[in-house]
């Protein structure tokens, strides 16, 4: 009986984490009360969490059901259930519209991030989305057995392999204190 309970517990834990998406901005994991989720092949994330993690101010217009994020000279406006979004007033077509999930406004992570000047990588094996904001444009390097990732391919004289930020985050690596800092 005890063995059956243990097996059921393991299956339940695996099912709970199945399909869970981890979201990082640079090397900080973004924790939210509603988990990022995949809809139509696109990762949707809580609107306020992604905008604020990127340093944008956020506004919500209830009557029109529109979320707006402003960062510097960029303005991104996304309306719930509408495949047309606006970047600095210019209409853009979304593959998947913003949706209300679990009482939260969920927006396409890649569209929002790239509209605000960041780059995004995805690691399907670990279900990890990583937005490069401060690290935008940086190449990421790792070793086969290391615990850290690097932006300098000669740091500490190691033998490095290039990977994506999402792969490094999905592997649980931390930034090198020497070439990236903390």
Euclidean distance between termini CA atoms:
49 Å
Query: Per CATH, which architecture?
Result: 2-Layer Sandwich
Radius of gyration: 19 Å
So what's the CATH class? Answer: Alpha Beta
Oligomer: single chain
Average pLDDT level: 87
Report on the biggest sheet: 5 strands, antiparallel
The main sheet orders its strands as 5-6-7-8-9
Number of domains: 1
CATH fold topology:
Copper Amine Oxidase, Chain A, domain 1
Can you give a write-up of this model?
The chain has helices at about 1-15, 45-55, 110-115, 165-170; strands spanning about 20-25, 30, 35-40, 40-45, 55-60, 65-70, 75-80, 85, 90-95, 100, 105-110, 120-125, 130, 140, 150, 160-165, 175. With about 180 residues, the chain is α+β, with helices and mostly antiparallel strands. The strands form 5 sheets. A 5-stranded antiparallel beta sheet has the order 5-6-7-8-9, with helices on one face. A 4-stranded mixed beta sheet has the order 2-1-13-12. Strands 3-4-11-10 form a 4-stranded antiparallel beta sheet. The protein is elongated, with a radius of gyration of 19 Å. Mean pLDDT is about 85; it is low at about 1-20.
């Amino acid at each position: 009986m005890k063995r059956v309970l243990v097996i059921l517990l393991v299956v339940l834990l695996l099912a709970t984490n199945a399909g869970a998406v981890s979201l990082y901005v640079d090397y900080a994991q973004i924790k939210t009360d509603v988990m990022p989720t995949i809809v139509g092949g696109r990762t949707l994330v809580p609107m306020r969490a992604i905008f604020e993690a990127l340093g944008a101010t956020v506004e919500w217009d209830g009557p029109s059901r529109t979320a707006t994020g402003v960062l510097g000279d960029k303005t991104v406006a996304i309306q719930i259930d509408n495949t047309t979004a606006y970047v600095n007033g210019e209409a853009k077509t979304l593959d998947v519209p913003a949706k209300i999930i679990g009482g939260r406004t969920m927006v396409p992570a890649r569209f929002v991030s790239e509209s605000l000047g960041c780059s995004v990588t995805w690691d399907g094996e670990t279900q990890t989305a990583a937005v490069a904001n401060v690290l935008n444009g940086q190449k990421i390097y790792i070793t086969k057995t290391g615990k850290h990732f690097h932006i300098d391919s000669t740091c500490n004289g190691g033998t490095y392999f290039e990977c994506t930020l999402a792969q490094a985050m999905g592997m649980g690596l931390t930034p090198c204190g020497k070439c990236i800092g903390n």
